[in-house]
Structure formats: structure tokens, C-alpha cells
Amino acid sequence: MYSKYINQFLIILLFFLCISGCKKFIEVEAPPTSVNSENVYSGDNTAIGVLTAIIAKMNPGLTGEGSISSLTLFSELSADHLEYFTKENMTYMAYYQNDLKATFTDRNPALFWRHSYTQIYIANAAIEGISNSTSLTPLVKERLLAEAKFMRAFYFFYLVNLYGDVPLTLTTNYKANATLGRTPVAEVYQQIIKDLKEAQTLLSDDYLNNTLLTSTDERIRPNKGAATALLARVYLYSGTENYANAEIEATKVIDDPKYSLTAPSEAFLKNGTETIWSLQPTQNTVNTWAGFRFLLPETGPNGWTPFYLSDRLLNLFNDTDLRLQQWTNKVTVDNTTFYYPYKYKVAPGSSTVTEYEIVFRLAEQYLIRAEARAHLGKLTGTNSAASDLNAILNRAGLGLTTATTKQALLDAIILERQRELFIEWGHRWLDLKRTGTIDAVMSVVAPLKGGSWEPYKALYPILQEEIAKNPGMTGQQNPGYTD
Hints:
Elements: H1 8-18, H2 37-40, H3 44-57, H4 71-78, E1 82-84, H5 90-96, H6 111-132, H7 138-163, H8 174-177, H9 185-202, H10 224-237, H11 243-255, E2 275-279, H12 289-294, E3 307-309, H13 311-314, H14 322-327, E4 328-333, E5 336-341, E6 357-361, H15 362-375, H16 385-395, H17 406-421, H18 427-434, H19 438-448, H20 464-469
Antiparallel strand pairs: 1-3, 2-6, 4-5
Helix pairs in contact: 1-3, 3-6, 3-7, 4-5, 4-18, 6-7, 7-9, 9-10, 10-11, 10-15, 11-15, 15-16, 15-17, 16-17
């Protein structure tokens, strides 16, 4: 995508260097002094280091707003679950008031575009280099290819859901990439599904350490379960023809004995049985980016931690809901009470690691299967939408669902996705869009946040300078964005 990334191996070197400061948590073989395709992919350790670096870059601690993990913050600001207290930061305000501009340059809306295409470029370089290597251990080679294709699929999933049609860059030929126009979402989904199916075939059932040959309790490298979890989500998002596939793939994860729903108090601890894939800390004193960003001090919101939960979200919970009790917390300042996300409870400064940032967890798979089954007409009884929904409700300490019709169940499932998945990886923003409810919700919410709403704002703009760099995208800005 980016013509400025002329030398793929300089980028790989940068990624090696980026993780050198977090070696305590992510052990990576020291890179060779001369970085090129032959020596990077001639040995297992350096080739593994490339993929380790891609994963590490997802969760770079204090610089999290330059990574995909900050989607948790920015998409929730765009939606209806977060309030912004100080209203001082231009970038936060642009997302919060749904006022993104194609020429906005101060921590601009190209954050996810640039980061994602950089990561995709590295994944493409890895796929090419690993495929051409004749000296890697065969099993390591297979698993590295699988990890690279999984990561490419992961980033394309978020790109199409944030921006719509996007260039489908599958090589490191920057000249060819610069002439690519935007590929329709349906075609991008086809490639995502292809990549994930290939990853499923090659990834290990077990979680592996950084040799890719030995099992570990650390759930920090993607395994077959992670690829299957994302595939289930993609099938659900891609619509009617794939609901049956979404049910099948989610069932594979749910039936895997490695995974089980835990008590809410244990759901976000590192390496728990609910975790399908998580990100290991990359800085010694920050367990998770979410803990760093959302935990409020006793003095309440401030310039550094200015976010708190909206009444719109809080009012969805019953007082007896264990998630309200255990996944939110509050501070009261001058008779005003602020509730904040408390899924991750370890504040910055702790050198003891008890939490990892969870990317996929089992509860989502139950909700995916419930929604797919509702669409398929499997409404009540054993192996139904209702039974899957009840698994989540029971874990939350609530009674069984009373919904019995298709629409009532779909409404209940979407409500449960709000209560279960709030402040996690953009779920609310993406759910509003894929269910066709975004205009109804945001036309009410946006004015309450001091902004305004138009339907075109469901897609983020592409920074105009990015379009200018790539002639194939000339005239292909998302509708509605002129500046």
C-alpha cells in the first residue's frame, strides 16, 4: 500500500528494534546485523522474530494510541458507551463528536489505516520470505505462514469495518500496490476467509512458545482456536449465506475443552480458560493498555484519564448483574459519581503481571452462535439461540431469557453484546453498523455529545494525503468527506 516502504527489510529491522526494549516479556532472538531476505528467513529464530514483532506491535504499552489496540478507545468514543470529560484533545474530540476530517493532521484518523497497512506489509513480506525459504524447520515454516496469514486477515477485518472498501494488498510490490483502487468489501472478506482457513489448517491446536515447537500455558501466540474464533466472527458479519458457517466455527471453539466460561471476576486474568488469544505486556510496569487508559484515580477524570462510562450503557444493567458489579467501578467527586471500565484492574506502576489484553474470548463465541442460530430459525430448546444466550446470562447471575421469537432473540442478543463486550475492540461501533441501527442510535447520541450525525459518518475518512500517495485511489474518498 505505502510507496514509502520501499525496502521491506528495513521495516523488518525496525520491528526487531521495536521489541528489543520489551525482551523481559517477549523473548526474541537478536536480529542479524545485516537484514535481508536470505538471512532473516534462513533460520527459525529470526523468522519467528518477524511474527513475534508483528504481535508485539499490537500492544505497545504507553504508545498504544498508535496501534490497533487503541481501537477500543476511539471506536467507543465514536459510539455511545463513553463520555469525554476534559474535551481538550483534538483527536479525542473528533472521534467523540463524530467530526473526523479527511485533512485532519493532529493525531489523525489515519491511525488505523497506516498502522494496519504497515502490519499487512510486514505480513506480506513474511509470507513471501518464509515461502521462499528452504532452510526453515518444516513445521516452523508452516506455523509461521499460518501466523502471517492470520495477522493479515485480522487487520483486513478491521480495515473493511472501519473504512468500507479498501485496497487488497497481498504482495510487497509497492509500485503495484500504489496503483490499486479500493476492493469491494465482499471480495476482501473472501480473502480474509481464505487466509483464515489456511491458517486453521496449519496452526497448532495448542498454544506454543517462541520456538513454535513446544506447548505453553501462555495464550499469546495465535493458535487454531484464534483463527477459528475470527473466522466465526467474519462469517457472522458477512451475512445471510454464512450464518450456518458461523454456527459451525463458533461451535468448534465452544466445544474445545481448552475453553470454558469463567466467573466474571476471572474473565480478564492472564491465560484464563475463557481466553482464546491475548496480548502479553510489552512494558514492565503496564499490564494492559486498557488498565492504563481507563482506570480513574480517586480524584476523578483528568487530562490523562478523561474517560468514563455513559449512563446510556450503565442503564442497560440490572443491579444484580455481576458484570456491573465486577466490570465497572466508580469514584465520587464533589457529589458527582463517575463510573469507569474495570474489566482490567491493574493500574500502571505494577511490576507484577496478572492481566493480559484479551483479543478474543469465549463469551463472544456464544453470542456469535446465538445470533447465527436465531437467523437460522433455531430459536429455543436445546442447541438454540436461547440456550447460548442463557449461558451468558447465567454467568452474569441473571435469569433465563424470556425471548422466544426471532426478532426478540436478536434484540436480546445485541443487548447482551453491549453488556458483555463493552469497551472491547470496537464491538459496539461495528455492531451498530452491521445491524443497520447506527443512524437511529447516533442521531440521538451525537447531539448529546455536542456533535451532529449524518449517515456517511458510519465510515471513517481516509486521510487525503494517503489517497494522494496512491494514484489508484484517486477520487475514491469515502462519501461525505471533503476536507
